[in-house]
TrEMBL record:
InterPro entries on file: Glyas_Bleomycin-R_OHBP_Dase (IPR029068), Glyas_Fos-R_dOase_dom (IPR004360), PhnB-like (IPR028973)
Cell division in keyword set: no
SUPFAM superfamilies per record: Glyoxalase/Bleomycin resistance protein/Dihydroxybiphenyl dioxygenase
Organism of provenance: Streptomyces venezuelae (strain ATCC 10712 / CBS 650.69 / DSM 40230 / JCM 4526 / NBRC 13096 / PD 04745)
UniProt key word Transport: no
Name of the molecule in the record: PhnB protein putative DNA binding 3-demethylubiquinone-9 3-methyltransferase domain protein
Keywords: Methyltransferase, Transferase, Ubiquinone
Length: 137
C-alpha cells in the first residue's frame, strides 16, 4: 500500500453518525469497530461507541474517526479542515451540495480571485470542509 495522508477525526459520542453521514455524501465502504467489539472490557457506556472507524471511497479518499474514551481530553478547534479538491466540477459540486446542506457556510461555492471555484462550510458535526474546483485552462 502506498503512503497516504488522511484526516482522523475525534468525537465525543457521534463518530458513528458522522461517518455514516460522510458515507452518504462521499460513497464508499465504511468499517466500524466499537469499544465493546474487541473482547476487552469497554469503558462503561462505551460498548457501542466507535473505537476506530474508516471510510474508503471510490475516489480514493480515506477518512478515519473515533469516539474519545473517558479520561482523554477532547478539545475541538478551528485549526483543521478537510479539503476536497480537483477538476471534476460535477463530482465536487455534488459533495458540496450535500456537505453544505444544513451547515454554516463561511465562503459560498463561487469563483475566487485565484481563478478556481471555492467554498467552505462547517457541517452539522462541527467539521470544516473546503471544496476547491480547479479552473480548466
Amino acid at each position: 500500500m502506498a503512503t497516504r495522508l488522511n484526516p482522523y477525526l475525534t468525537f465525543t459520542g457521534e463518530a458513528k453518525q458522522a461517518l455514516e453521514f460522510y458515507q452518504q455524501v462521499l460513497g464508499g465502504d465504511l468499517s466500524l469497530n466499537t469499544y465493546g467489539g474487541f473482547g476487552a472490557e469497554a469503558p462503561p457506556g462505551f460498548e457501542e461507541k466507535i473505537m476506530h472507524g474508516m471510510l474508503e471511497t471510490p475516489s480514493g479518499f480515506t477518512l478515519m474517526a473515533a469516539d474519545n474514551p473517558p479520561g482523554m481530553e477532547h478539545t475541538p478547534g478551528n485549526d483543521f479542515a478537510v479539503s476536497l479538491s480537483g477538476d471534476d466540477a460535477e463530482e465536487l459540486r455534488g459533495y458540496w451540495s450535500k456537505l453544505s446542506d444544513g451547515s454554516t457556510v463561511s465562503v459560498p461555492l463561487e469563483k475566487q480571485m485565484w481563478g478556481d471555484v471555492f467554498g467552505m462550510c462547517t457541517d452539522k458535526f462541527g467539521i470544516t470542509w473546503m471544496v476547491n474546483i480547479t479552473e480548466q485552462g
